[in-house]
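pasting for ref
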Amino acid sequence: MPLDVCDFERLCAEHRRAILSYAYLCGRDYNLAEDIVQDTLTIAFGKKDQYVPEADFRSWLISIARNVWFRERQRRRLSARSSAFIDEHASYLFEDAADEESSWEEESAALKACVGKLSPVDQGLIEAHFARNQKYAEIARLRDRTLAWVKVRMHRARIALLACVQLSVGGKGEVS
């Protein structure tokens, strides 16, 4: 069931700070960060019917913001700086409990361990997308697979990582 406009606006307002923080860390420019937030929320509104209620809303917005950042970085010919780590761990960096240092360290260690538990195929997909910034279509082409196959494998890998990290941190708050 798609979100109604009121719920959508409430969730966007609730997570706006996290999106702004992510965008600022990427570009180190407040005005650029505000532009990214605005574009992210506009895109999210246009795709609100595609949002799956079981998914974490903040993570969904961060993934949109990530794509907006990549587009802006390319359009403005900005250096990638060292945002790979931020891109790779965005959904964990901007969750509610991420402000606590001990929580971050525990979840970061759990994430690294959980990536190691994935199948070699899934590890390769995660690395290609997050470390080498390859788009799903490029991954599909390079692996001689369909785009749908890549999307499904990535979705399953992310779900497996989420479950593994949640189990690893012993249910001390939800990791999203």
